[in-house]
Inverse folding.
């Protein structure tokens, strides 16, 4: 079956622009996670949804970052007024409720010039 | 603070060699520990998951061990092949957080 998909795969933005990154989880996966991976580093947790409820947003680095999952399936991570330090790969993962394993998408590589 | 550390950051070995990647973590109250593989430009692929009650897991040429009391895990790769070249990430799920904390990764190059 289809895995986790993310779009776009690559995004170049000028400093100050707003961007929106999309994640399509595996069908039936209740839990959805967003991670940020800087070059040469491991992924860092941003936020977590269970269905449409955002249960943990402790990893969002600033109020410029906003995530939503209005219908409990597709999720969008929005970054307002992008800055150079936002350049990273943004990974999305999904899992079944209570499951140990998270399934990761290919990521969106964001470059802010 | 709950942290995961991986050493070394990079490793280069000749084909056929057996090798060990190291992962250490603070706070032994873990739920599980997972090893992932990441190829350039790709997402993460789960290799092995060890529950807190287990001491090791094996899959083919890979063996992962867990020592909770010392806060350590190792990933053993037998008879390495050029196709094993990738970044290997260790991630811990702690009981009281529900979110994965990753190490920085070890980038492995296996030379033919």
């Amino acid at each position: 079956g289809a895995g986790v998909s993310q779009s776009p795969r690559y995004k170049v933005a000028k400093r100050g622009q707003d961007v929106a990154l999309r994640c399509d989880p595996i069908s039936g996966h209740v839990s959805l996670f967003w991670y940020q991976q800087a070059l040469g580093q491991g992924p860092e947790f941003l936020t977590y949804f269970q269905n449409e409820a955002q249960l943990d947003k402790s990893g969002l680095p600033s109020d410029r970052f906003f995530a939503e999952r209005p219908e409990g399936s597709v999720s969008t991570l929005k970054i307002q007024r992008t800055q150079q330090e936002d350049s990273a790969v943004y990974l999305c993962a999904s899992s079944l409720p209570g499951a140990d394993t998270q399934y990761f998408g290919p990521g969106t590589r964001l470059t802010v010039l | 603070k709950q942290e995961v550390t991986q050493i070394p950051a990079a490793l280069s070995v000749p084909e056929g060699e057996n090798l060990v990647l190291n992962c250490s973590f603070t706070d032994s109250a873990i739920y599980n520990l997972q090893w992932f593989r990441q190829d350039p430009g790709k997402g993460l692929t789960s290799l092995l998951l060890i529950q807190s009650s287990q001491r090791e897991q094996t899959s083919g040429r890979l063996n992962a061990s867990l020592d909770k009391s010392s806060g350590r895990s190792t990933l053993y790769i037998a008879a390495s092949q050029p196709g094993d070249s990738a970044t290997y990430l260790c991630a811990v799920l702690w009981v009281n957080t529900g979110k994965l904390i990753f190490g920085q990764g070890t980038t492995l190059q296996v030379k033919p």
Observations:
- Chain A has a mean pLDDT of 94.
- The first strand of chain A starts at residue 5 and ends at 7.
